[in-house]
Amino acid sequence: MADVQTPPTTSHSRWSSLSSRLALLIAIVLILSGLVTAVYSAVSARSASAGASETSMANVHRSTGLLIDQAYADTQRARQTALESRRAELKDVASPIAATLEQLRLAVQAGELTLAQAQQRALDTIKATRYRKDDYFFAYDRTGTAIAHPNPQFQGKNLIDMQDPNGVYVIRELLTRAQSPEGSGYLDYAWVKLDETTPSPKVGYVFGYKPWDWMIGTGVYVDDIDKEAAARLETTKKALGDAFSKIDFTASGLLFVLDQDGTVVVQPAGRDLGGLPSTDWGRSLASTLVSSSPSTAGTITPSTQQAAFTGTLQPWRMDLSSFPDLGWTLVSAVPQSEIDAPGNSQALRQALLSLGVLTLGLVIGLLSSRRIVKPVEQITTAAVALGDSTFDPSTLDAAAARRDEVGTLARTFQRMGADVVERERKLREQVTKLSVVIDRQKVAEEAGAITDSDYFRELKQRASELRDRDSPPVTPHP
Hints:
alpha+beta, sCache_2, Beta-Lactamase, rod-shaped, 11 strands, Double_Cache_2, membrane, transmembrane, HAMP_dom, five-stranded antiparallel β-sheet, disordered N terminus, six-stranded antiparallel β-sheet
C-alpha cells in the first residue's frame, strides 16, 4: 500500500493571520473614526469659542455705543434746553417793542401824531434799543428792505435774496414766519456780528405788525451755547475715555473713537493712540476704518485689519459703528490670537480626549479581537493536527465551552475530528487485516504457479514412475 502524502505546510507572514488582520482592521476603523471625531470636535469647539468671543465683543461694542448715544443725547438735551430758554427770552424782550408800536398807532388815531411821525419814532426806537449788551432789533417792510437796522451797510437795502453761509434765505424765511397765520416764529441761521466779518450761529425771532405791514425782529447769537456744548462734549470725551479704560473684555482689547478725518477723539485713559496718524500702518488703518464704517447708526460692521497696537503687527478683529450726528466711528479691537486662544485650548483638550478614547478603544478592540480570534486559532491548529494525524479533541475543550458561534464551530469540529480519527483507526485495522489475507493469497498463487509449471509436472511424473518401478507386483487373489 502506497504511503499517504502529507500536504506541504505553507509559511504565513505575521500580517497574514486572521488575528493580525482583524486587529489591523479595528485599528484602522478606530483611528479613522477617532481622527474624524477629533477634527470635527476641534473645529466645532474652536468655531463655537470664536463665535462666543465675537458675540461678547459685539455686546461690549453695542453697550459702548449706547453709552455714547446717551452722552451725546445729554449734551444735545442741555443745548436744546439752553436754546429754548434763549428763544423764550427773545419773545419776552420783543413784547415791549410790540407794545410801543401799538401805543404809537393809538397816538396817530388820537391825532397826537401823524403816521409819519409815529413810524419814524418807532423806527428810531427799534434801532436804538439794546439788550444783553450788543443784541438789537431790526425792521423790514414786506419787500425785504431794511427800514431799521443798526448796521449801516444793511440800512435801506433790499435783502430778500441774501443767503447765509449755509444757503438759508434769511430775510425771506423771516418774512414767511412774520406773515404766517401765527404772526411770529423762530429761525436758526448764521449772521455777522456787529464790527465783525465772520458769520456766527444765531437764532432769530420775528413778529409781524399788520397795521403798518412791518416785520420786527431780533436775534441772539448762540455761539456761546455751542461753546458750552462743545465744552460739555470735551468733558464727555474724557468721561468716555475713563469708561473705556474700565471696560475689560480681553487682555489687549481696546475701544477708541475716530472722527471723519481719522483722528482719535476718544481713547482709553492710560493708552496713547494719538500717534496713530504718525505711522504708515496707523494712517492706512484709520483711513480704512473710517471708510468701512456703516453709514447708518446702530449697525455694527465686523472687520479684520493689521495693526500694531501692542508693538507687533498682527491681525486684529475690529467692530465698527458710526454716529452720523457726531461724525464719529466707534472701534472695538481685539487681537485675533486672543479670540482664537480659547478655541485652540478647547480644541487641544478635545483632541487629547479623543486620543485617550481612541487609545482605550484600541486596547479594548485588540483584547476583544484576541478573545474572538484565539479560539479560531485553536480550531486552525486542530485542523492542521487533524491533517497530520496528531489531532487531539481535548485541545478544543476551551473553545468548545464558548456559547457563541465560535463555540458552536469548535464543538462541531471537535465531534467531526473525533469521528475522523476513529474512522481512520478502524480503516487502519481493516487495512492491516486485508494485508494479511492478501499475503496468504499471494503465497497460494505462487504455490499454484509452481505446481502448474511444466518442470513441476515433469518432476511429478518422474516421481510417479519411480514409485511404480520400485513397488512389488501385486498378485491378484483368486
